[in-house]
Design a protein that fits this description.
Elements lengths: L1 H16 L14 H29 L5 H28 L1 H21 L3 H7 L8 H12 L2 H54 L10 H6 L4 H4 L1 H44 L3 H30 L1 H20 L5 H7 L1 H20 L6 H53 L11 H14 L1
Helix pairs in contact: 2-6, 2-7, 3-4, 3-15, 4-5, 4-6, 4-7, 6-7, 6-15, 7-11, 7-14, 10-11, 10-14, 10-15, 11-12, 11-14, 12-14, 12-15
């Protein structure tokens, strides 16, 4: 009787919250996950405006355009380091206060960029980005508010709302730049974060969103006084998920190499105009958003996380092999580029979900932080490796290099994994999901 009562209470909690991943009721946008989607979209708007306006700020300050690359590299490094640190804070503080920290940091950054007029000021303005981890907090909220069966789809839908924010931010920046100028646009980015902060204030202190066990056991000062213990704890966390971590690192490398090198390589090959380059990047962005926000949730629901992770790499391999046969045919390059972008989306969304399912609830913030840090580590390496490889090998051999990396990983997955890391050993859930989907379709 007691067990039945507990289950009924739990099901009622999820039914009332409308938080099983994506809009199913009119109450969705006043639910916790609905608000997370709104915050996510506003965060995407601010981030996109900042990226778009940064080169114009540098030009107006008579600074070398190369500083744009330096500042973006600084941003990636701060995100890489800060994500792990922030993940631990999120476990201690809970979702609501973590949203406060992240959104106050992004607000400060955009306001400082608006007011800065010197190179030193621009570099100092990027320091708050250490705590700009709003997407990470949204992911934590989703993981705490959804059951395992719905988690992958819910994480994928976050990419959809974030992508919508990016698209809307790009349109907004283009419309307002001639009216408000770069600094006025950055002030709009600041206002978007203030609005997101206002929405986050309406989040309730749900026990599921505030991990009380961590608050009782750990004080914030322990992060500074027991650094060795924290490193040990992080290493133990990595041990629980190291197989998926390595799969994401090596699996994403050729995909992100291609994604970051895509525009420069195609511009060099086909001599495109700046307008065409902009359309090209928009195209790649939309494909990624659809793949992460719609395709990955659908296939994970149909087949299960691990089957999607397992076959994402062979899918990507086929895409690179087809690209190597395209030569200088622009239409085929654009068409076949969809395949590795979809493979990367499947791997990252399903891999991220699997990482969160292999740790305790009190460690979710930390594991999402580790996942984010891994992504930024690959992001930092990928452009350098991509451009060096393209210059040294040319386009045809460059595609074959990416295909070779995927081929090695595919051989590992299907031949060597069971006798080494055993990443796919615990695959019962994926098989059960797949067979259930087959039964439903019959």
């Amino acid at each position: 009787m007691e067990v039945t009562s507990t289950l009924l209470q739990k099901s009622q909690m999820f039914a009332d919250d409308s938080s099983d991943g994506f809009p199913t009721t009119k109450k969705f946008f006043v639910s916790s996950i609905g608000k997370a989607h709104l915050i996510n979209a506003l965060y995407g708007i601010g981030y996109t405006i900042q990226i778009a306006m940064l080169p114009y700020l540098l030009i107006s300050s008579n600074a070398g355009i190369e500083h744009n690359g330096y500042l973006l590299t600084l941003f990636s490094l701060l995100q890489f380091i800060g994500s792990i640190f922030f993940g631990r804070i999120a476990d201690i503080w809970g979702v609501k206060r973590s949203f406060y920290l992240s959104l106050v940091s992004s607000s400060m950054m955009y306001l400082m960029l608006t007011l800065s007029k010197s190179m030193l000021g621009y570099y100092i303005s990027f320091v708050p980005s250490f705590f700009m981890q709003t997407f990470q907090v949204s992911s934590l909220l989703v993981c705490l508010k959804t059951e395992n069966d719905n988690r992958t789809a819910a994480i994928g839908y976050l990419n959809l709302s974030y992508g919508i924010g990016i698209i809307f931010g790009s349109i907004l920046a283009g419309m307002l730049v001639n009216i408000l100028g770069p600094r006025g646009n950055l002030f709009v980015a600041f206002l978007s974060q203030v609005l997101a902060l206002y929405i986050s204030k309406s989040l309730e202190e749900d026990p599921k969103l505030l991990v009380n066990n961590n608050i009782e056991k750990i004080k914030l000062k322990d992060l500074f006084t027991t650094a060795q213990n924290e490193c040990t704890r992080l290493f133990k966390l990595f041990q629980k998920t190291y197989g998926i971590c390595l799969l994401i690192i090596f699996g994403l490398l050729p995909i992100l190499m291609t994604k970051f090198a895509f525009a420069p390589v195609v511009v060099d090959m086909f001599k495109l105009t700046p307008a065409h380059t902009s359309y090209l990047m928009t195209y790649a962005g939309i494909i990624t958003i659809i793949a992460e926000g719609l395709l990955a949730p659908y296939l994970s629901t149909l087949l299960g996380d691990m089957i999607c992770c397992k076959f994402a790499i062979p899918l990507t391999l086929s895409g690179f092999l087809l690209l190597s046969l395209c030569g200088a045919n622009e239409m085929f390059v654009l068409l076949f580029m969809i395949i590795p972008l979809c493979g990367g989306a499947l791997l990252y969304i399903c891999g991220t979900s699997q990482m969160t399912k292999r740790v305790d609830e009190s460690e979710l913030g930390s594991i999402i932080g580790l996942n984010t840090s891994i992504f930024y580590a690959v992001t930092i390496m990928a452009p350098y490796l991509a451009f060096k490889s393209y210059i040294a090998l040319g386009l045809g051999l460059y595609w074959l290099l990416c295909a070779f990396i995927c081929f090695v990983i595919t051989i590992y997955i299907f031949v060597l994994d069971q006798s080494t890391l055993k990443i796919f050993e615990d695959d019962a859930d994926s098989l059960e999901t797949m067979f259930s989907s087959i039964k439903l379709s019959l």
